[in-house]
Write a structure and sequence with these properties.
This protein is mainly α. It has helices spanning 3-8, 15-43, 46-69, 87-116. It contains four helices and no strands. The protein is elongated and about 85 Å long.
Length: 117
């Protein structure tokens, strides 16, 4: 085989190629969604378009007010999420279930051994 032919054979694409393809796919999907949204807005009567614009502005203002009033609600700024209760109680529950299952299995073996033997 010639060296230039060997260089053109690759078993798998590089990570840069994969990232580039994914970014391109995401951009195409974003354009499709934007086009569909534009089509929907254009199909609405002008009064509905104005109402939609007012509703979106109201939602944006409410979102901003909520972010300013309760910054801890944002998952990327607040403290780490904690599980309610004591984590040891979960392990205690799991251990209890295992012990119960072992006792039931032992009891079944004893009953079977008694019946057979």
């Amino acid at each position: 085989m010639s060296p230039h032919l060997l260089g053109s054979l690759r078993s798998e694409p590089s990570s840069a190629d994969v990232i580039s393809l994914e970014l391109h796919r995401i951009e195409v999907e974003r354009r499709v969604v934007a086009d569909r949204a534009t089509d929907v807005v254009e199909a609405l009567p002008e009064a509905d378009q104005d109402q939609l614009a007012r509703d979106i502005a109201h939602i944006e203002r409410a979102t901003l007010a909520l972010k300013q009033a309760e910054p801890a609600l944002q998952p990327w700024t607040g403290p780490q999420a904690t599980l309610p209760g004591n984590p040891r109680s979960v392990w205690l529950l799991i251990a209890t279930l295992w012990i119960s299952a072992a006792l039931i299995a032992t009891g079944a073996v004893v009953v079977i051994a008694t019946i057979v033997g």
